[in-house]
Design brief:
By secondary structure, the protein is α+β, with helices and mostly antiparallel strands. The chain has helices spanning about 10-20, 20-25, 30-45, 75-80, 140-150; strands at about 65, 70, 85-90, 95-100, 115-120, 125-130, 160-165, 170-180, 180-190, 195-205. The protein is globular, with a radius of gyration of 18 Å. It starts with 7 loop residues before the first helix and ends in a 5-residue tail after the last strand.
């Protein structure tokens, strides 16, 4: 597989320009964002949208959900204590989805989802932060995520893209891999007419069972 160096700084400059033009293109959706990523990558000397570009990078060590910094390897009890002011829904025994506020039954507000935490043998094995919320669009989310990487001192990353097809849905994904940390940007199309866009900052390995 062909490999090329990729510096996140040109991406940051490009996103700043894109943010200034946000009002003009925010309705274009994730498809336009992925197309613009392709244009950026071709400008970096890439051969195709699906080619992989790999360089060394300084990985981030944590992901922040709300105001709580989480790291791989933390115990489940430590995470629960740190997230005591947040809402936790256990999707499975070792898979938690985190909300900005404590949940009530019945719910009094539309809860704001922050991200997901998974555990293996009682310790954090995967963290995912959603940058796309009800108050942001795809471009806002990508801009915020990349600026976060820049503040951590991360510059060089690897980039790839793929399409995953299941019997009733298709998912288009773009990955920005920076050491232990990655950004996943994509759009899910279902046969039922539902569409879901996502911009997620991730660390670790999710349970795919």
């Amino acid at each position: 597989m062909e490999s090329h160096a990729f510096d996140i700084e040109p991406l940051n400059r490009w996103l700043i320009k894109l943010e200034r033009a946000n009002r003009l293109i925010k309705r274009a959706g994730c498809g336009m964002v992925l197309a613009l990523f392709g244009m950026l990558l071709m400008g970096q000397g890439a051969g195709s949208a699906d080619s992989q570009r790999t360089v060394a990078t300084a990985p981030g060590s944590s992901i922040v959900l709300g105001s709580v910094s989480l790291r791989l390897g933390m115990s489940k009890s430590e995470v629960r204590d740190k997230l005591s002011d947040y809402g936790i829904t256990e999707l499975k025994e070792n898979d938690w989805y985190i909300f900005a506020d404590k949940l009530t039954d019945p719910p009094t507000t539309d809860p704001l989802g922050l991200g997901e935490v998974e555990f293996t043998n009682g310790h954090v094995s995967f963290i995912s932060r959603s940058w796309l919320t009800r108050d942001t669009d795809v471009i806002d989310a990508i801009f915020g995520a990349v600026m976060s990487l820049k503040r951590e001192g991360i510059r060089a990353c690897s980039i790839s893209a793929d399409t995953v097809t299941d019997p009733q849905m298709r998912t288009e994904r773009t990955w920005i891999q920076c050491g232990k940390k990655s950004l996943q940007i994509g759009k899910l199309h279902s046969d039922f007419g539902a569409h879901l866009q996502f911009v997620e900052e991730q660390m670790g390995q999710p349970d795919v069972k």
